[in-house]
Fold each of these.
Amino acid sequence: MSFFRHAFQIAAKDLRAELRTKEALNASLSFALVILLLFSFAFDPTAEQTREISGGLLWLVFAFAGALILNRSFARELTNDCLDALVASPVSGAALFTGKCLANMALLVAVELICLPVFGIFYNVRWVHRFWPLLLTLILGTWGITVVGTVFSALTVNLRLRELMLPTLVYPLLIPALMAAIQLTTGLLAGQPLAAELTNWLKLLIGFDIIFTALALGLVETVLMG
Amino acid sequence: MTAVSAAGVWKYYGDYPALKNISLTVASGACLALLGRNGAGKTTLLRILAGLSQPSRGTVSIAGLAVRDPRARRNIGILGHGIAVYEEFSAYENLRLFAGLYGLADPHRAALEWLERTGLDRVKDGLVREFSRGMRQRLAVARAFLHNPGVLLLDEPFTALDDRAIVVLQSLLAEARSQNRTVILSTHQLREALELATHVALIQRGALAYAGERTPIMLEDPGWLYRTYGEA
Amino acid sequence: MKDKLLYAACLLAAWLVLANLSVILLVLPDEAEQGAIYRIIFFHVPAAWSAFLGFLLAALASVAYLVKRNLWFDALAVSVTEVGLVFSIVNLITGMIWGRIIWGIWWTWDARLTSMLVCALLYAGYLMLRRAVEEPAQRAKFSAVFSIFAFIDVPIVWFSIQWWRTQHPQPVFRGGGSMDPAMYKMMFANWVPLLLLFAVLSAVRLRQERARSEIDALRREAHAL
């Protein structure tokens, strides 16, 4: 099906371009690590406190670092009017969007997987024993951020103050997803099993992802067409 | 056979009409020169014909298909103000990418072939970032013609081309004509355009002031059209 | 004629509020736990209802715009969103006053108040977005898309915050669920004038937006000549 072929071609293009310049990746990663460090100085949490804030801390870092990557997503198409060439091509808006989501997802998850061990070391938190449920949370939460962030990256690409508009619009929308991801992460790192309460947050996160993916796929063509 | 048809196209920016009731048909193999002052609406119309912009009213079809239909889009080649190639990729990578997006059977070979035709084969692995202006323009032309589109939409293509690029473009356009492909180009360069054109359309403040065949008098006296049909 | 209708509606609203106030202040008894201040609920809650009504209308108008591409729907969307935002701020401020009086603090992360704060942020973002886009059709299109996203997010936000608060409880304004039926009736009775006010403000804003649109078009035409 050409939808998937196009989506993978776009994802591959974005990843190849990003890996070549590493602009967004470097900015995002350094920003994330710096904030992690700063929080440690600012709050100097005890072991007990760290356990309580771990989810919040990690996901705030991921959300802020993510904005840098997401901003770049459609902004990279502005030089030389490349976006026009893509929109005029047989690639559908939905395929273009999906391809970019896949690329952004890969980049953001990579940043997160680097932050996790750094966090573990600096804050003295054991996480390896919960790796698989944590990875599930990372992926579901990051998909929520990516999907909403990418569609608004497309929307804000031509606006003045793009770097300001994207976080302003996206962060309030993401509150349910971030909250669920935070609760899940804190719970998992505190040793809670993935059952009962935590499963409810998991369901919320999955629901959020499904609803907003569908909404984004439905509206992205409208956003892209002039 | 009608290759490009616009019927009752209006484009509003807010309550202001940038295009007013544009209806025109361009037959296969024709070459239409779209003339008009700056701000008349040439670029707006071309973007609508290319499927980049939605008309507020009216329809556009390419060979009978709606312009946003993927089959129609596969058949359109565009050359706008921007070169629409990626700076961080090489000439080859750019063409290979677009060949893949357009679903060509052998994207690798198509890319190489067009690099050669536009004289870029020797720099095929060079990054576009390092190209001269003329080289970039030639790559843009290669990208536009790469998938052998039946319809070519060119927005002021001769602006900012160096001599070598102009030669390449003119020969490609002549070849396109001989292959019965349709070309619509907007321009300020009256002479070059009128030489290539079989038909002419004049847009004046969003409306079609004249549309018809190119006559000998237009070629002899390029300003004639503006004086006769245009405003002072 | 239209003006007279708007003035009449205003007067009616004012009269109703005064009538209600007399009942609220004089007739209804003090509430068991909260004393006199609970009366603020008769503005606090209907304001929230009005805000949500505004956001719902905005979402519907946004869908209508995307389908019909008629700028009147865009004007409607921005008008009811602005008025809805004002009512949400009224809800927040009355909530804060209430909290200050009962518990001595200006803000608690009460589920309802927090949800309303997020909604206010969302729709303030909508207004910011509009300021960032010059071209009217594009502005209408982008705000419509955002309005739809925002409205679909509202119930999810509400739900997730409720849930967060059940896990980490904080004091709530209204302890039990049940309320004296007379008070319930008054909340609805007081909603009527607020709705009238909502309609009047939206109508005025809508008219202003359409006028601005017309001026904009004339200006573009003048520049083109």
Amino acid sequence: MIAGVAWSNDGRLVADTLDRGTGTSNQHVLLMRGDDLSTVKDLGQGRLTVWAP
Amino acid sequence: MTWTSADQLLVSAFAKGKCSDPHTARLYTVDVKTDGVKAFRGLAGAEPSADPVSDQVACVQLTKLDGGSSRNNHAPLYAESLKLPDLDKGGAAGRTLASAQYRLFAEQRAFSQPQLAPGAQWVLAGETGSDVRITYTLYDTSDIATPWLSVSASALQAAAWAPHGGKVAFGGVAASSDTLSDACVYVDDVTSGALARTPPASCPARRPA
């Protein structure tokens, strides 16, 4: 499921995905353009804390 | 908590021993330069979201109306209001944008974690219940609370306004899916009303480690 979303100042969007499986917790960070969600790209495991200004 | 200016935060805090209970929350300002903390007009409120440009704040107020009885499993009756106080009007509690009454059960909320859009024309809030499910509703703040868009999702509450307003993003699952496996991100353009989502299966919940 999606656990968080955050915009950058230039209109990009990141989403934190969270999978709580049996005894596991798997988090990934997705990056996309806010005006074209088909550009979604998996940045790998992790969690976005904050965008750099 | 929310920034109201470069030097000031608006926070909600809870009565001692009632940690994280929004029903007991009150609003306070924190001056980050002096560490000064002051009650914000003595207002009860939780989950504030400010728009410093328009000097407005969205927050929720919860009032216990009765403690319940054996006829309703002792579930207390609460009134929950979505309020819009101005930052610069002393004494003003703000107008009530929407309100609801319910017998409290589990994690029930009517206007959870409201988020005020830049410009304060819109506010997004979530309705939650006893399961991991949320209904996002986008309200027009110009007069009375007009629900503009409602989307239900089996998801945690996760939403954010674009920095310059006009678009709001939130997490969910595809409308056609009845499982948690087809997670997606929605973006609503509040100017055109267009609702877009990430392509199916582009952000599955379960991925190989």
